[in-house]
Design goal:
Length: about 100
């Protein structure tokens, strides 16, 4: 699962504009991963990450503007993941992540 490991720039198109975070992802099994980093929303933690073929799912915990757990579902193609980030009450936002290293 070397394709998921590394530093990624996550860009989420929110009602407040594009929000970018650099997150480091590490594999923790055949198909699972976790990670974290910082961005405009403060500390971001990636939990319950799973790669199934080219589908990548995960939870993203953030503390700003208030604590919440978001659910991501993306499609992995090389060094790019694109999909949606489900914010619950605020709907689904477009997400694009590009591998930096």
């Amino acid at each position: 699962m070397a394709g998921i490991e590394g530093v990624w720039e996550f860009a989420v198109l929110s009602p407040m504009g594009e929000q970018k975070s650099d997150l480091t992802l590490t594999s923790s099994g055949d198909t699972s991963f976790s990670g974290g980093g910082t961005g405009p929303s403060g500390n971001v933690e990636i939990l319950d990450g799973e790669v199934n073929g080219d589908t990548v799912t995960f939870k993203m915990k953030t503390s700003k503007p208030f604590p919440m757990t978001l659910k991501g579902e993306t499609t992995l193609s090389g060094d790019v993941m694109e999909g949606k980030l489900d914010t619950g009450a605020f709907g689904k936002l477009n997400l694009k992540a590009t591998k930096k290293s």
